[in-house]
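User: Fold this; tokens only.

Assistant: Input:
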Amino acid sequence: MLEFLLYPKSIAVIGASRTPGKVGHEIMINLTEGGYEGQIIPVNPSADEVLGLKCMHDLDAYKGVIDLTVVAVPSPLVPQAVKTSIKAGAKAIAVVTAGFREVGQEGDALQTEITGLCAKAGVRLLGPNCLGLINTDHRMNASFSKQMPKRGDISLLSQSGAVCTAMVDWATARGLGLAKVVSIGNKADLNETDFLQAFAEDEQTRVIVGYLESITSGEKFIRAARAAASAKPLVLLRAGITKAGMRAASAHTGHLAGHDIAYAAAFRRSGVIRAESFDALFDYSVALSMQPLPKGNRVAIITNAGGPGVMAADAAEQAGMTVATLNSRSASALKEDLPPAAIVANPIDVLGDADPKRYAAAVQTARADEAVDAIIVILTPHAMTKPAETARAIGASKVGGKPILAVFLGSADAMPQRKELADCCLPDYPSPERAVAALRAMYEYHLWRKRPARVVARFPVNRRRVERIIARHLKTNHVQMGEVEAKEILRAYDFNVPDGRVANSPEDAVEVAGRIGFPVAMKVVSPDILHKSAVGGIKLNISSPEAVRDTFDLLTLRVTRRAPQARVHGIYVEKMCVHGLELVLGMTCDPQFGPLLMFGLGGIFVDVLKDVSCYLAPITADEAMQMLSETRSYALLKAARGQADIDLTAITGALQRISQLATDFPQIKELNINPFIVGSVGTEPMVVDAGITLSQGGGK
């Protein structure tokens, strides 16, 4: 699909320069010295040759075939360079120049112009405001990166050119190879989705790594990421997760960043391995590139010092991994191979004077143990330590298909042989905690690959009733839907709602209360009041006709005084609910990824602890249960001693019904049920209060 961009047979460089330090010169250096075997056409109106190559003053005079043009001229000159490239027959154009959408209106107009030119001609555009691209398989460095990495199997896409150069430097310093490196910049045309698809199909690529600040299309991204992750590991670092970061991301590339909680849900849905930091991006990618996936979470720890072994055990338990219990055969084998003072339990302490042979024996024993799924090898520097020889011995003992990660402690000066680890395909980490984090990421990806097929249940509901209610509101341009109408919609989707009715006089309120039975709750009904309690517009546990009359007058008076501009449509009289656990269920429509469901316990757990979980709709029954179990307060959903179990199925069913409602009606922008009362198994859960907001345009 991107053959002319990734594997061009000829490259024109518009803005090729004879001056060292200029972008056009560095690109020419990289192309000529990187081993690119295709034709290079430098273009510079002021030069006859650049780096010994004949220079064209203008592409109009060139009569050959051009696959790719790299544009490195000042931004005002870029549109003309794009026109010239298209006229010369270029199939792809990479604009490395900055000064477009990221700088404001004038730059935005330039970007719109060159994007339109390329789209009209059917030419793919990379950038602008990008580093360029590298393909080690094609020996092509069409970028202004300082180095050309050696051939490898990790492909990188990045919205930041600086991250590309950092990745190249990091890989080069460790003797690691990369496959393809693509800086996507402002994403005027080609974006992350295009390269996820290309890398997923690329035979050279084993692991896809990315740095993103925004996503162009949430729906397309999820499809492409899920397809890519199903074929090979996909590790992404997403920046711009704070308000300050979001502002910086927008200024950096001209794209607005979405809410991080929605990105997290999208990554989870599509199988993306999320790196929380720059270090983690490297840590995860190298482990996935060099080692097989663990088939379980049981870890054997081999160390020549007790302290780091304890640190690794702590990190494993805290990460949700298990310190494996070795079988009796392993213990016997270790006693034969190790000195009497060695510890043959897990962590396995081979002692400070351990030689390479001792390490290799411990690794072989751990690999042969069926109770072990992965191994972490720790080496601390002593006078007797032989790091390079130990790395080779461990590498030679790798049998059994279980991942092994190395933690060779000490500085580069103390252990200059770290390259031996890379040569032996042993990922190397500066601390036990980082090795465990990488192993955990590998295990979670294994679980995602082994997940059952997603089956989203469909419930019998009354869609026509909801259509009529929404149409009525949108016709009158009332996007805010109060409790009464929101409960009508939820009732149509088979939620249990307390019996109630709007009363317009004290006598009417008494009649409603008498019909539904005491005690009752009374609430003001107004499209202008979102939070009834803030204006004193709600009263609970009213148990007599006299109290109903008094409450009607009281609520009316309070609203008149505290919200004099509010339109009051009456007082809602409703049957009081039985006691139970208060939950908060909700949905908000994310601008990138669509309906995002929310679950949490009520009160302090939401307001103070922010203990909620969020998943993208639609969800399965298993995913609904995961929403519950991922909260810190999940234990409170379990029965306390001597109490009946909370009806978890009722909660997961409610989440699935909200999911169906949100996907059935994209006009719903927000939905909030607070509180949702749930009791023990056999009792009916109840919607106590609810609100819905519709989109102004009637859609997402």
